[in-house]
Amino acid sequence: MSSLLNKSYILSLSLLGSLGIMGLIYNVLNSITHNSLVLSSPIDNLIPLVPAMSIPYLGWYPYIFLAMAYLCWKDRQLYFRTLLSMNISVAVCYLIYFYFQTTVPRPIVTGLSWDHQMLNWIYGNDKPFNCFPSIHSLYSFLVMRASWNSSKIRFRTKVIFSMCSLTIIMSTFMIKQHVIYDALGAILLGEAVFILILSSVKVHKIVRSKRYERYS
């Protein structure tokens, strides 16, 4: 427990605030509606609307924080690389939103049950833009990807991360916030940036090692 309360851990975890700062840009771009495209596929038309999937969709917010807090505790270096991957990837997302804005047609939800009301609340607080790539899918994938890349995280925990991440990604389809291409784009983007950062770290270590050998 003391390791969770030490200064180094708290300072490292505070860097998660960078995602919140980046999130401020999202709201600005979410109002840009010109020339919005629809990327839906025939598969999306087969996916039913399940308002109850609003729960994992909203659960994404605490999930990402808790998952990153755990990663920061178990594997600090990988935490920093994952956080950097998130920030770089979401910056790319914002560029895409600005130049290639997409939208998802939303169904009219008329029910009065709790799940219908929750879904209407989501619709009321998030305009149907900034869809491709999906940031929900992006962060969920990177958390799952990082867990499988770490030798310090138990297999059972990796499975839990994977189940949670995949459920959240599926929820974006089932409440009609995103289409399949939005998730695929996010996964490809996240994977590319994640590999690029890990490769850069390996190259840096090799170069530093050779310099050390040269002057030792």
TrEMBL record:
Task: Report the domain of life of the source organism.
Answer: Bacteria
Phosphatidic acid phosphatase type 2/haloperoxidase domain location = 81-201
Q: Which GO terms describe its cellular component?
A: membrane
Q: Name one Pfam family in it.
A: PAP2
User: Keywords of this protein's UniProt record, alphabetized?
Assistant: Membrane, Transmembrane, Transmembrane helix
Q: Which SUPFAM superfamilies does this one have? A: Acid phosphatase/Vanadium-dependent haloperoxidase
Q: InterPro entries, per this entry?
A: PAP2/HPO (IPR000326), PAP2/HPO_sf (IPR036938)
Indicate the transmembrane segments per the record: 9-29, 49-71, 78-100, 181-201
Name assigned to this protein: Phosphatidic acid phosphatase type 2/haloperoxidase domain-containing protein
Organism of this sequence: Paenibacillus antarcticus
